[in-house]
Write a structure and sequence with these properties.
The structure holds two protein chains of two kinds. Chain A is α+β, with helices and mostly antiparallel strands. Among the domains of chain A are: 119 residues, Uridine Diphospho-n-acetylenolpyruvylglucosamine Reductase, domain 3 (2-Layer Sandwich); 109 residues, Alpha-Beta Plaits, CATH 3.30.70; 75 residues, Alpha-Beta Plaits (2-Layer Sandwich), CATH 3.30.70.2740. Chain A contains 15 helices and 18 strands. In chain A, a hairpin with a 4-residue loop joins strand 17 and strand 18. The two termini of chain A are 22 Å apart. Chain B is globular and about 70 Å long. Chain B is an alpha/beta fold. The chains are: A alpha+beta, B alpha/beta.
Amino acid sequence: MAFSLLNKLVDIFGVEHVTDAKEDLITYSYDATRTTYMPDAVVSPKTIEQITLLMQFANTYKVPIIPRGAGTGYTGGALASSGGIVLLMDRFNQIVQIDTKNMYAVVEPGVVTAKLHTAVEKKGLFYPPDPASLNVCTIGGNIAENAGGMRAVKYGVTRDYVMGLEVVLPSGQVVRTGSKCIKDVVGYDLTNLFVGSEGTLGIVTQAILKLIPLPQSRQTMTAAFPFIHMAADTVVDIIANRVVPACLEFMDNHCIRAVEKHLNVGLSKEAEAFLLIEVDGFKSELSNAMEIMTSICKENGATDIQVAKNETERLKLWEIRRSISPALSGLPIQGDGEDIVVPRTRIPDIIKKMEHICDQYGLYAINFGHAGDGNLHVSLVEKNGPVAAEKVAAASTEILKETVRLEGRIAAEHGIGIVKKEKIGLNIDPPTLDLMKNFKRTLDPNHILNPGKIFSFSDD
Amino acid sequence: MNKTPKKQQPPFRHLQDIAEELDKCAQCGECRSVCPIFESLEWEKFSARGKVALTRSILSGQIELTPAYEKVVQNCLLCLACVENCSSGVRMDHIILAARNQLKEEKGLPFFQRMFHQLLLLKRGLIDFLAMGGSASQYLLFKRLPRKSGLKRRFPLPMVEKERYVPALVFRPFRKRMPRENRSLESKRTILFFTGCLVNYVNPHIGKALVKVLNLFKTDVIIPKHQHCCGAPAEVGGDRETVRALARKNLDTLFEGSFDIITVCASGGYMLKKIYPDFFTPEDHYYSKALSVASRTYDISEYLVNKIGLGEIKKHLKKPPADRITYHDPCHLARGQGVTKEPRQLLQAIFGELYVEMPMADRCCGSGGTYGLTHRSTSVQILNKKTENIISTGADIVTTGCPGCMIQLKDGLKRHDKDQSVFHVIELIARQLSYASDPKPQQKNFSSNKT
């Protein structure tokens, strides 16, 4: 970065909190995707005023600003895909307030999600969104990506817990949306415009998050099914019988095999589907719920049902779910992986379709995910020997098209970022897309804030 | 938990040799949540993921061996927390050591470090002599701390802050004080005691406690005279030649007989069990020696629980103690050797309900061998968190399984003006046992014990 520009940044942030050393830039050039883009500088603000000044700087010199939390995203939202300045939110890391009576928390965006969990749970409260990276990822990133997690089937996603935001707009102006009230119809619901906007519309500097009472207890079971439709029926039947599990996790046959190879706990390699089900609530209700679920599993043809009798057994069952990533880490996985979602009854359909598509390209698909909410994480793996990148991309496109045909969405909880922006048209029709782009143009006419994410502007 | 190391590939040297290890990293960032250094310094380059990215850039030629890169590579405790928590199984320790080895080969070691490594290779008697000199002259620079075994500085010194706890060197090293063979009354088995330098030169009480306890349980203790530094300080500096030279000497000493080998030093045990075999190719005759020694090495807590047995130990317990006890996991014992259960089983057997688990017990104390000397301010930040966790338990006594951690923990408690004492697990056990020379042993006072 030009010396004069860097000096201006030093004036704003202080020399300790600005860097353009290559050794630093490299470590902010990546996230959890497999692409890297070198930024031109990295800054770490401590105050809102500094962010405002940075926005003014960026508008003057037409430099992109890329907000960044922990850099754990899967779609490149925090990557400097057109260069620019990475804006670290690490130092906005305070839990400002936890109101136990009105049940909300006021937090800064750099707070690590798990730390918020611990803090509120100590007070008997609960912040349900639990993206898999919760030990690392930050609330700011969760809001930007509208992160989900395993508890979505019962508790919803990040969006359902954001009551209000303080946001620095690309113009440098600071706006406040929403409030601490459960009911609030004052003006447009701007909060939901910013949640899931992937850092393209503003920088969140504070959030009011809804909390709920911490469930008293939880119980966990697993069930294996010889055929996948049996598992799908089980999921539907359980909820139809008025039991809404907190988690309803799913693995397909390929995933079961990979995990069994890794863990060696006697999972049936023939099973087409494996469910991990957890219910939470009052102790007195849970045994009843477990009975209902066990009998539904049996009725639907489950071959192997395991119910955790204590915490040790519960953790053992969870070990199966948790070992998916290490189990998959050694496999020749191709492409970026999918994060699709369909109405939950369509899971067997999409899995069969994917199998068919993958067969044609010399691939197979490993699926695991959140059966309760229809969200699948798909990894494409080479069946025998290398498959060209274009072929993998073609298979991926076909899978997304099939997802849309089944009334699904091409991105459930990982965002669009740069990885899926060419595909956004599969889900969003031209007038709707235009409206979205108009919001972006209105708020950020100079395209300084996280440009090139979500969609491409032809007039860029 | 302790698998016999069965490394077949030749030992890694340079980054090129561990390119595969670097490829494994999926950049998920989970390491950010466990790295004590990243927690203190915040910049991504200090996290394991950042270090992987930088070493990758060295390999690809994107950056050179710049001072900034070197600073990052040297800023690692090798506490293995990232290794334990990595879902892709990236051996960050291997990466760091290979990177340091490359730096050493291409840029050389700093003068003082080179001198120090040379010192480790000196003849045993000469080192003893130097230590005696150090012991005799240490009071010129430092004064004794009241009621503690340590020292504090008399006047401003480089690297030593005003209130810093400094361990005192003993005048007669442990291995000189003790006979080679320490027989028990009724000899049932024999072990070799690999003392480690800190027991030898700083804290001989730990060694004495071990001999006393094992003798009580009908175990003869042989203290081989030709023991050398395990090489850990040279290993973390990337100085593989020095480690290999020390490993050969120690393997020659420990290989004879087929006795079990006991360590009381977390890093020493880790070197014998896990690291030495990595230093020799399978063709080298030291390779089989290293494997044999590795398979026979036990931390004292492992040995007591698995070979002597908790039942046998309980039989010899004396009056119920009234102290609240907590335990700190040394990195190279917990993650390095996989020993976490045994020390707790012992402490719970002796102290029952008085044993309290501290929050984040397996978090590094910031000592990290030489890290506490080379990266003082970060080390102290990490130590402060550990000390707060210790204080939160309300324990009167902190125990651990590593003489190095003990020095660091004492320093931390002193900084917080706390009076808790710090002991090695074996010292505490020795205190709670009754010996033949004691008046009337009392038994079965511990019915409330839960293990």
